[in-house]
Amino acid sequence: MRAPARSSSALEVHPLTPDRWNDLVTLFTSRGSGQVRWCWCMYYRRSGRADVSGDTTVAEHNRAALKALVDAGTVPGLLGYRDGRPVAWVSLAPRSDYAKLARSPVMRAVDDKPVWSVICFFTSADARGQHLAEAMLAHAAEFARANGATLLEAYPVDKQERSRAETIWFGGKAMYDRAGFVEVARRKPTRLVMRKALRPARPRTR
Predict the structure, then answer these.
(1) What CATH number is given to the structural domain containing 127?
(2) First-to-final CA distance of the chain
(3) Helix axes 21-28, 58-71, angle to 10 degrees
(4) pTM more than 0.85
(5) What span, in angstroms and rounded, lies between the C-alpha atoms of 137 and 121?
(6) Which of 152, 150, 16 is CA-nearest to residue 72?
(7) Cβ atoms of 91 and 28 closer than 8 Å
(8) Rounded-to-integer distance, Cα 28 and Cα 69, Å
(9) Cβ neighbours around 81 below 10 Å, total
(10) What are the pLDDT digits (tens) for 110-132?
(11) 2 assigned to some structural domain
(12) Does residue 202 lie in a domain region?
């Protein structure tokens, strides 16, 4: 997959590839990373529970499963850096890569159009409140477009009060509004599906 060609607010962004795995580990095991330290962005890639055996914990199982994907050439998301240090993450992929979405009463398919999905944002504790998720969303759109996507889909929360941990990772509706996403479904009062149409990527010229 081709890398995004833009940067924003002194944020350097790269696809997660095997040579950057240790940077993701640094970010996901930093202070304030309790949820991603357990999930490793594998929860929505499965339709059921993780098949954990022996003395392996769910967190260890998820970490190994994500590393196996990365080592096999899958790019499960983008890493954001400041001053060479990983500070932000966004998980995205073709919707078909996320088996659990098909079973979700909130996030099930709206139609049969091919879309990419934005699933999760994470920012290091010392970099929060700096709109890094919004910057990462812009890079996610560029990355998806560069890899053939024409629609980018997200599942934000739409309420004023602080959201529960299992939903804040999707981001809030206002962020997607500013990024040009439009609501296409609302199956619960505070949970919705939003989409953004992406311009077709220009073919490379020789």
Answers:
(1) 3.40.630.30
(2) 19
(3) 150
(4) yes
(5) 9
(6) 16
(7) no
(8) 17
(9) 18
(10) 999 999 999 999 998 888 888 89
(11) no
(12) no
Mean predicted confidence (pLDDT) in 189-206: 83
pLDDT at 165: 45
Distance CA 58, CA 79 (A): 23
Handedness of CA 195, 125, 87, 16 (dihedral sign): negative
**How many structural domains comprise the chain?**
1
In a domain, 203, yes or no: no
One-letter-per-residue 3-state SS of the chain = CCCCCCCECCEEEEECCHHHHHHHHHHHCCCCCHHHHHHCCCHHHCCCCCCCCCCCCHHHHHHHHHHHHHHCCCCCEEEEEECCEEEEEEEEEEHHHCHHHHHCCCCCCCCCCCCEEEEEEEECHHHCCCCHHHHHHHHHHHHHHHCCCCEEEECCECCCCCCCHHHHCCCEHHHHHHCCCEEEEEEECCEEEEEEECCCCCCCCC
CA distance linking residue 92 with residue 145, whole number of Å:
12
Backbone angles phi and psi of 174, in degrees to 5: -60, -35
Task: Give the number of other CB atoms < 10 A from CB of residue 7.
Answer: 14
